[in-house]
Amino acid sequence: xxxxxxxxxxxxxxxxxxxxxxxxxxxxxxxxxxxxxxxxxxxxxxxxxxxxxxxxxxxxxxxxxxxxxxxxxxxxxxxxxxxxxxxxxxxxxxxxxxxxxxxxxxxxxxxxxxxxxxxxxxxxxxxxxxxxxxxxxxxxxxxxxxxxxxxxxxxxxxxxxxxxxxxxxxxxxxxxxxxxxxxxxxxxxxxxxxxxxxxxxxxxxxxxxxxxxxxxxxxxxxxxxxxxxxxxxxxxxxxxxxxxxxxxxxxxxxxxxxxxxxxxxxxxxxxxxxxxxxxxxxxxxxxx
Length: 288
Hints:
ABC transporter involved in vitamin B12 uptake, BtuC, mainly alpha
């Protein structure tokens, strides 16, 4: 029983991180209708920004999270306005192909400039908390708290700002939102920028726990899609619920067998969900 609770605790810590990875994907698809394969590169960029900041300046990884957030925000806004705005109103396949092509270009550039070397650093989060028979490392606790702040900030953006209301309106019905005066071009740009910022911030957190390579984002992208499908597109609470569920599944099967089997189970879950409940646990385009 103690082992089951420990695995659940570790799964929750991983799950909130997966929720942040998935939420960036979910917002972009919910508002723009674009399957964003480029999200993987935002995650990778966040990892490299934090790595080089910590190695070269000795700054805290927490500063790297903030810097990655800003970098993802600016880069996402620029890419949407310069490239993706041209395919937003085209068939969904066009947007998918554009983001996939940009992802390949991004992967090539990152590999060229940073090589394929494995990079890691000491995060400085030693020790942990003894919760009776359970144990939670400081690193997992800090990562979870960062992710909770990011999720909470996204909820505030969606429900306490005018641009958030416009994003929710566009996610529910783009044509009706436009008819009511919502500037879809601006909403799309903000949505993609926020998605990029969440991805880069997630990458920064991932760099504190895993090695950073050009494939960092791609290692987590498909799992992010699983969380989106499970939680429902455009739902913050759905992303959190789906992330925690997938986190517990991955940690549990990773303990029982190994990480390869755990990922296989997660991918099988994706196929099952697509067949049985493609709208997810919370349905499409919900934002709370």
